[in-house]
Amino acid sequence: MLIRKAYDYEIKSLFYWSVALTEELSAGYMKRNARMTHEMVTRVLSNGGYYLVASNNLEIMGWILLGIDQNYYKNENVGFIYELYVFPHYRKLGIGRKLMEYGLSQLKKSGMNKVQLNVFNKNGAKKMYEKLGFKDVATLMEKEI
């Protein structure tokens, strides 16, 4: 397995997978929305963000989308993980953890002292994030009325 920056021709596929996987990535909270996903990915990529992929030969096993964002509560730049995904048949092989560790090292090399991400409560990756040292800092609450 090799972790590397996504090739230009792969970015379009990663975008389409992100759209198709919106419900899974959000643990069922969000519905598929190509416009919203396109706006988020375009913003991240145009601000210096990038995809890293875990690949075996040219087959993508999973990816992570990294960038820099603003923590408005502390008025500081932070590394941000916008997406992490490993295809189901490659799960439980440590690929997600390796993508996270490599992504964290790249953000640290770029000068970031902190990294943040959003994770939905029912997302199984939350336990991995906690094992990597991520801690809850806020809770978004919602009530239908």
Automatic annotation (TrEMBL):
<dbReference type="InterPro" id="IPR016181">
    <property type="entry name" value="Acyl_CoA_acyltransferase"/>
</dbReference>
<dbReference type="GO" id="GO:0016747">
    <property type="term" value="F:acyltransferase activity, transferring groups other than amino-acyl groups"/>
</dbReference>
<keyword id="KW-0012">Acyltransferase</keyword>
<feature type="domain" description="N-acetyltransferase">
    <location>
        <begin position="1"/>
        <end position="145"/>
    </location>
</feature>
<dbReference type="InterPro" id="IPR050680">
    <property type="entry name" value="YpeA/RimI_acetyltransf"/>
</dbReference>
<protein>
    <submittedName>
        <fullName>GNAT family N-acetyltransferase</fullName>
    </submittedName>
</protein>
<dbReference type="Pfam" id="PF00583">
    <property type="entry name" value="Acetyltransf_1"/>
</dbReference>
<dbReference type="InterPro" id="IPR000182">
    <property type="entry name" value="GNAT_dom"/>
</dbReference>
<keyword id="KW-0808">Transferase</keyword>
